[in-house]
Amino acid sequence: MSNALPYNARHLAGDTYVIPGLTNSGFVDGLVIDTCDDEAPYALVDVDHLAITHGHADHFSIGHALHARGVRVSAARDDASLVENPDINIRGMFSWAKPGDVLTTKLFRGLPCPVDRSVEEWDDPRATPIPLPGHTLGHHGFLTRDGVLFTGDALYQREIWQQHPLPYLIEPSKVASSLERIRATGFTWLVPGHGFPVEREAAEGHLDFHLAQLAEIRELIVDRLTKPHTTEAAIAMVSAERGLRETPPAYWLAVATVKGFLGELLDEGVLEFFVREHAGWWQTSGHP
Ligand SMILES: [Zn+2]
Predict the structure, then answer these.
(1) Ligand 1 centre and the CA of 135: distance in Å?
(2) Cα–Cα distance between 145 and 193 in angstroms, integer?
(3) How far away, in angstroms, is 3 Cα from ligand 1 center?
(4) Which one of 82, 94, 111, 155 is CB 3.0 to 4.6 Å from 99, fit for a cystine?
(5) Which superfamily does CATH assign the domain made up of 10-217 to?
(6) Which CATH code for domain 220-284?
(7) Which residues contact 32 (CB under 8 A, 6 or more apart)?
(8) What is the pLDDT of residues 109-154, one digit of tens each?
(9) Ligand 1 centroid vs 286 CA: distance in angstroms?
(10) C-alpha 56 – ligand 1 centre gap (Å)
(11) Domain residue ranges in the chain
(12) pLDDT tens across 31-78, in order?
């Protein structure tokens, strides 16, 4: 294996580097963790394995090009189909019906990347996969042998919350337990999918902030749904309170996130659901 490194790689610890970008990419002696959106940094570098944190296309933008070079690609079983066919995310967002192109976020659009091996069969000593579900079902972080944890979209730093005040998730309680699992992991550096690498102490602050935001959104829903809301009105209420931009892609991401909270609160008995005048309604339990 050559010693060449991606030209813009930043050293973090031991053999672990980050290739900074809109999506941060990890590099450990030929193992790549998620990709940036540009092939150039990897062009003159020996790469033999690509590990993908989850099935959103912005995390494997050039995965297809690495695979075409003979790089082995790993993704979790639950997310592999999303990597091999990004269209599944777009369909899922629209209850499997076909949405118009204008509705889909660019984060879900991308080129398919074949998956060779599931993360569940991991055997690469350069890193250890850590299950961090909640953003997607099969989301994983990767802890390199040098103590650097690549967390994909399991953690949003404070600064990201300003741009995305209602970030995408599908199961808020799983997001919360994944944040606690990150805290319990023995890392010295944490590299989120979007944002900047932080050392342990700063990472703890970002974990607390993310957990507090989840609790705030949950409280908002429980509090405001003492008056019954249709699904559509509940999404609009949360989006307005969080200060979301009014664009079709932002709206459709909010649909998934708000439904994630509604479904969980219903399961916990905190909310009730009923159908009236052919619309679905939600109301906090015990408020006739
Ligand atoms: Zn994502």
Answers:
(1) 7
(2) 19
(3) 31
(4) 94
(5) Ribonuclease Z/Hydroxyacylglutathione hydrolase-like (3.60.15.10)
(6) 1.10.10.10
(7) 25, 26, 42, 47, 49, 50, 51, 66, 71
(8) 789 999 999 999 999 999 999 999 999 999 999 999 999 999 999 9
(9) 36
(10) 5
(11) 10-217, 220-284
(12) 999 999 999 999 999 999 999 999 999 999 999 999 999 999 999 999
